[in-house]
Write a structure and sequence with these properties.
Elements (H helix, E strand, L loop, with lengths): L9 E8 L2 E8 L2 E7 L5 E5 L5 E8 L5 E8 L5 E6 L4 E7 L25
Antiparallel strand pairs: 1-2, 2-3, 3-4, 5-6, 6-7, 7-8
Length: about 120
């Protein structure tokens, strides 16, 4: 039985936190975080403010808070706390010893056609 519907984005992982399903997707190198109820109805898409890769989920099925690590292209990994009931993300822990001056970096997504016309 399918619970979470298909989408154009690639489903990376699904976790059970706070009696809800937390799904991580990736589309064109950009993360998407979606929270579903147990019947598969989308409750909210939670925006991720930076490019990178979401890893290292931790939490409990009966607690409405989960933690994940975001590996950015230009910053050291940051651990975020996700409040599943309020759909908010806050920095839980970051490495303050590493410089966070990212003004010299420009992250852009550029699409090209391959020889067969595929993006």
């Amino acid at each position: 039985e399918n619970i979470i519907p298909e989408s154009a984005a690639v489903l990376q992982s699904v976790h059970f936190f706070g009696a809800k399903l937390v799904a991580t997707y990736q589309q064109s190198g950009i993360n998407q975080l979606k929270i579903f109820n147990l019947r598969g109805k989308l409750e909210r898409e939670v925006p991720i403010s930076t490019h990178g890769r979401i890893t290292a989920w931790s939490g409990s099925p009966d607690v409405a808070q989960a933690f994940f690590q975001l590996h950015s292209y230009v910053e050291s990994p940051i651990i975020y706390a996700l409040d599943i009931n309020n759909y908010t993300i806050n920095i839980y822990q970051s490495d303050k010893k590493v410089s966070k001056d990212t003004t010299n970096y420009d992250i852009r997504q550029i699409r090209f056609k391959s020889y067969d016309g595929t993006d």
